[in-house]
């Protein structure tokens, strides 16, 4: 029986535990009232269901998680000595072949060695035994938990307290998921980054100005420089994000002010959903728009300026060269993409400012524009900063638009008309295709991810400081 079927059976037993637990509590009532019961009958049913479900579901999750590893260990232990003594990579390939053959159960005509076929049959045999034992164990735990809870039901049993306490624990566990996930991401990236810095100097990575991660497989291999200077990548990420924010923040903030303070209810109800549709457009569509529309127009505009410079001998204009892929094209389109993150959140927080602050400012003789810029915007600044931070994080993590509009060239330049690349694009490039995870080229992706994580952390700390400063002033 599969794990899904086990799950359905456990849920069915939990439902039965609730029914019989509630039924017993109803039978303990004094007449038709619940005065002699500590809790309502439904709480006794919930208590019985929880005693049944939680231990059984935990056992099922642990069993399903560790089952493949345990079966694989048993199968490997039965392999012949010559197969066991293979190199780690070869043994891993053999294990993968056994798993694939066991899943397909196509033992004839595969061309696999007899030992591998026998191991695949053993794998299926152990899987069948494990499924039977899992079903018996999980069902037994569920039934035992339901029976013990049913035995505990009495008028004095504080079922409501037990249920509410367990719910609080579950809520705390759900709230901890984000923290645990963040810690897991950090350590998974950190360990691989440490392996990278054992091969490449951290000084070269942080301060190097040349990025060319092609490493040599052979001593005499040509075209492999192995330069891992991360400055051009981090600068490209920041450069394109700045261009995007220069587009998104003014447009988004002004749009939010118009929608919250000037627009009629009818205009607001129509304009805000249309504006928020921009956030739902796939990024590949933005990439096509940048590559097919914005980038050619920027290149034509640059050619027009260069023609003017050549006609009137203006050296500055005559020297303008526009790449077919540029940071400006990617930044402009990315800025359009993140406008909803700024406008929607800013609109909500500006609208949430108490009317007393508006009325007080207007009563003191301020104009509407002065009230907006000197009272409402500072009061709503924590929420506005949150929206800008969300937009910045979205821009920093964008990949498709940069690939299609900014290119893959790792350049250290301040010219927005040049092609640049970002950290996320290089991470994708490094991890695409068949790669060895012990090479510096592949491990560099984790170091780049760690650097991006630290940059985002600093942005959050900076934004948190601003939020706390202005929250203290306006609370």
Secondary structure layout:
Elements: H1 3-27, H2 41-77, H3 81-84, H4 88-104, H5 114-152, H6 159-199, H7 202-207, E1 211-212, E2 227-228, H8 231-262, H9 265-276, H10 283-311, H11 315-318, H12 327-337, H13 339-351, H14 355-363, H15 368-379, H16 381-396, H17 400-405, H18 423-431, H19 440-474
Helix pairs in contact: 1-2, 1-5, 2-5, 2-6, 4-5, 6-19, 8-12, 8-13, 8-16, 10-12, 13-16, 14-15, 16-19, 18-19
Measured as a percent range, the helix fraction is over 70%
Secondary-structure content class? mainly alpha
Instruction: Write the H/E string, N to C.
Output: HHHHHHHEEHHHHHHHHHHHH
Strand proportion, as a percent range, falls in under 5%
Describe the main β-sheet briefly. 2 strands, antiparallel
What name goes with the CATH superfamily of the largest domain?
MetI-like
Radius of gyration: 32 Å
CATH topology of the largest domain: MetI-like fold
What would you call the shape? flat
Counted by DSSP, the helix tally is: 19
Mean pLDDT over the full residue set: 82
Based on the structure given, which CATH architecture of the largest domain is correct? Orthogonal Bundle
CATH class of the largest domain: Mainly Alpha
Uncertain residue ranges? none
Output the strand order for the largest sheet. 1-2
Q: What distance lies between the first and last C-alpha atoms, to the nearest angstrom?
A: 59 Å
Count of domain modules: 3
Number of strands: 2
């Amino acid at each position: 029986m599969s794990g899904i079927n086990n799950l359905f059976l456990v849920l069915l037993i939990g439902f039965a535990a609730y029914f019989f637990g509630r039924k017993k509590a109803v039978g303990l009532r004094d007449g038709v009232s619940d005065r002699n019961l500590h809790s309502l009958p439904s709480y006794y049913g919930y208590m019985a269901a929880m005693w049944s479900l939680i231990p059984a579901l935990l056992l099922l999750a642990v069993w399903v998680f560790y089952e493949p590893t345990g079966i694989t260990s048993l199968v490997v232990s039965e392999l012949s000595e010559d197969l066991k003594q293979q190199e780690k990579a070869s043994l891993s390939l053999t294990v993968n072949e056994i798993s694939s053959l066991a899943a397909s159960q196509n033992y004839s005509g595969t061309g696999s060695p007899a030992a591998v076929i026998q191991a695949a049959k053993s794998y299926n045999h152990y899987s069948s035994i494990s499924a039977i034992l899992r079903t018996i164990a999980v069902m037994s735990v569920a039934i035992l938990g339901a029976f013990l809870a049913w035995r505990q039901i009495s008028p004095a049993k504080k079922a409501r307290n037990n249920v509410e306490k367990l719910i609080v624990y579950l809520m705390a566990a759900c709230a901890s998921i984000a923290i645990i996930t963040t810690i897991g991401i950090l350590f998974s990236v950190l360990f691989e980054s440490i392996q990278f810095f054992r091969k490449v100097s951290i000084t070269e990575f942080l301060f190097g100005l040349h990025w060319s991660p092609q490493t040599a497989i052979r001593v005499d291999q040509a075209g492999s420089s192995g330069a891992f200077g991360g400055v051009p990548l981090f600068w490209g990420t920041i450069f394109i994000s700045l261009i995007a924010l220069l587009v998104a923040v003014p447009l988004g903030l002004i749009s939010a002010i118009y929608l919250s303070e000037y627009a009629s209810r009818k205009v607001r109800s129509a304009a805000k959903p249309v504006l928020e549709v921009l956030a739902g457009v796939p990024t590949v569509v933005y990439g096509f728009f940048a590559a097919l529309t914005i980038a050619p127009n920027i290149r034509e505009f640059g050619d027009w300026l260069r023609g003017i410079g050549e006609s009137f001998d203006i050296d500055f204009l005559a020297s303008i060269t526009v790449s077919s892929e540029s940071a400006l094209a990617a930044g402009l389109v990315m800025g359009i993409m993140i406008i909803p993150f700024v406008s929607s959140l800013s609109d909500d927080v500006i609208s949430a400012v108490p009317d007393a602050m508006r009325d007080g400012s207007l009563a003191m003789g301020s104009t509407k524009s002065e009230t907006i810029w000197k009272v409402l915007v500072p009061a709503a600044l924590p929420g506005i900063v949150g929206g800008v931070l969300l937009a910045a994080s979205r821009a920093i993590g964008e990949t498709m638009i940069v690939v299609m509009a900014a290119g893959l060239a790792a350049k250290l330049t301040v010219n927005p008309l040049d092609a640049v690349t970002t950290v996320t694009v290089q991470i994708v490039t490094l991890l695409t295709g068949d790669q060895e995870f012990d090479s510096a080229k592949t491990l560099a992706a984790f170091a780049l991810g760690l650097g991006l994580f630290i940059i985002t952390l600093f942005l959050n700390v900076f934004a948190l400081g601003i939020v706390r400063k202005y929250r203290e002033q306006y609370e």
